[in-house]
Design a protein that fits this description.
This protein has eight helices and eleven strands. By secondary structure, the chain is α/β, with parallel strands linked by helices. The chain folds into two domains: about 60 residues; about 250 residues, TIM Barrel. Strands 1, 2, 3, 8, 9, 10 and 11 form a seven-stranded mixed β-sheet that branches. Helix 1 runs antiparallel to helix 8 and helix 4 packs across helix 5.
Length: about 325
């Protein structure tokens, strides 16, 4: 005869198993991304700068790694009209890469000219909300007219803005606000717009540049391995950092950028544009130490399994009780 206490114990155990299983199923790690950001694309570039931009972008094409291009719409303060349409070489090239999902076109202020209202260099800090709103609106309209793309990422020039900058960008429909810091930081949201920090590859002589690449590698690896860090690290550089003293493409620096990208790919890094519209995973399997997403057993499957066991045990319990009651009546 089946003992009631044993059945009850099995029922309780199945309930506890369900709780533990569901709790385990909910323990996931955050998938991490690295986003590249290339600043200061603009019309009327100095001699050789467009060639440097093309060479840097070719690294991203060859490696299948997305990048966010921070475009300055109106670099000549006193010149009228949509300046993005006034430089045919720049316009033709940018339109040629615009359909490629690897490239996000972001807005990098309006003129990128420091104003006198800010102590630190900034186009926007210290200006009124209306002034900032209108400057961002003009740049946004120029980008839409020139490329047929509505920018979703706003990047304040010199990586400096104030509360009015954030509020104006949010009001104009931007979903991402990028401004680097000395290290990766936890992101936040203001009016539904995500605020991200990051790191920068520094310009300077060859030694400074190489050390900056090494520092970026170290911080990136720490970011990928730190379970408590954020889900996105932004790595910023400027295409003009890849020119030599004569303005020609510096192929040694281009190779260092390539090596850095391949270093990240060897760590199983998943890359993204800042607007999250496109991501591309490397072909290398992520190492066990990388804090990337893991596949878990769906909670619904666990519910079904444990629930089925519980139903069987409950059936045994009820049947045993009926048998005992029948046995008593026949005595």
């Amino acid at each position: 005869m089946v003992k009631y206490p044993a059945i009850l114990i099995l029922l309780i155990a199945s309930v506890l198993l369900c709780s533990v299983s569901i709790s385990s199923a909910q323990q996931t790690t955050v998938e991490k991304y690295i986003a590249f950001r290339d600043d200061d694309e603009k019309p009327f570039m100095p001699l050789g700068a467009l060639d440097a931009l093309k060479a840097v972008n070719q690294v991203h094409i060859d490696e299948n790694v997305p990048v966010t291009l921070a475009i300055i719409p109106h670099p000549r303060e006193a010149q009228e009209g949509n300046q993005l349409l006034q430089d045919n070489q720049f316009l033709t090239y940018m339109r040629s890469v615009a359909p490629n999902p690897l490239f996000e076109f972001a807005q990098h202020g309006y003129t990128h000219t420091p104003n006198r209202l800010s102590v630190a260099p900034s186009e926007f800090s210290g200006r009124s909300y209306d002034d900032q709103y209108n400057r961002i609106l003009k740049g946004r309209a120029d980008l839409i007219e020139a490329f047929g793309i509505v920018p979703k990422t706003f990047i304040p020039p010199f990586d400096k803005g104030d509360n009015n900058t954030v509020l104006a960008a949010s009001a104009l429909g931007f979903t991402e606000y990028s401004s680097y810091s000395t290290s990766y930081v936890q992101h936040g949201y203001i009016n539904g717009m995500r605020i991200d920090g990051g790191i920068e590859i520094e310009n300077g002589n060859d030694t400074t540049f190489t050390k900056s690449i090494q520092r970026a590698e170290n911080i990136s690896e720490q970011f990928l391995n730190d379970a408590q860090s954020d889900d996105l690290l932004v790595v910023t550089y400027h295409y003009w950092e890849f020119q030599d003293a004569n303005g020609a493409v510096d192929h040694n620096r281009i190779q260092q950028l390539t090596n850095f990208v391949e270093f990240l790919k060897s760590r199983g890094t998943v890359f993204t544009r800042l607007d999250r519209a496109y991501t591309s995973a490397s072909n290398t399997s992520p190492p066990a130490t990388a804090s990337l997403a893991v596949i878990i057993q769906p909670a619904s499957t666990i519910y079904l399994l444990v629930g089925s066991v519980s139903v069987v045990l409950l059936g045994i319990y009820v049947n045993a009780r009926r048998q005992r009651q029948t046995s008593r009546r026949t005595k």
